[in-house]
């Protein structure tokens, strides 16, 4: 429009029509027609079309947060009396939301692998939810194997693909029914956006867009959609840099005597590395390490000694961040996920790797001082 290289931001909350009949027809198709900001908006719609194309999905629906997308997606697929199977470790608030659904008669079970899944599945199981790589532990799931297993048992599959971004992994092409992302992380890329998206086939997205999206009210703003669009433009360049720095830092840590283990799927030593190479085209820079300690104060002291890694939640921006679940995560959630006391999560940003490695090295020296 007018030669602008950036799409315009449509700020208006209301769209008008020439006749009441036209308005009525638009309201009946508000998932696609512009009626009111809470339904959709031209700027948001453009972001949705770009995300769907990148993920190889038919449609996408953007939300005001990642949890908005996750909660609406799960709610759209279950009813009172249904059961959800959760495979492996997943985002803490997702577990909290599933516990919240118990008041409405929806139950869930966490399992470590498909073998346990066969024992946990019931006649009321409707949904299999998982992440790959998994939350905090970064275990790799064989996506094609899991979706085949679920399909044989009549389960819908939902996968959180935030870690890899739609650039490095495309679960829909491997049989997953719906994919969710927190757009606040790598897609946004600058720690100035909170947003989420669900992507998948028309038959599942349209009813969700007309019901849960409208009723929950977690509508993405056009300004945030514009940030998503800008983030997508630089995503390939940023992810290549994140991958390079993340692998360099992980390789340093895996050889340090104060570190028990490093959980990064890009390392050849990772148990799921071969599967990761088969189903992913690259690696992000979020991973965890386990310090050689069982002491919470010692973990806290390690974090305090860091200078370039800032202590905070979230990830995927320029700045490097560090977090320790034993110090910040609800104990019951941490226990459910099997997260050890010494586990520390690193989000490697875009600072030079040698600076970050030096920072970690000095902080680790204090572990044995």
Automatic annotation (TrEMBL):
Gene Ontology molecular functions: transaminase activity
Annotated coiled-coil segments of the chain: none
Keywords: Aminotransferase, Pyridoxal phosphate, Transferase
Needed cofactors: pyridoxal 5'-phosphate
Family affiliation: Belongs to the trans-sulfuration enzymes family.
Name this protein carries in UniProt: PLP-dependent aspartate aminotransferase family protein
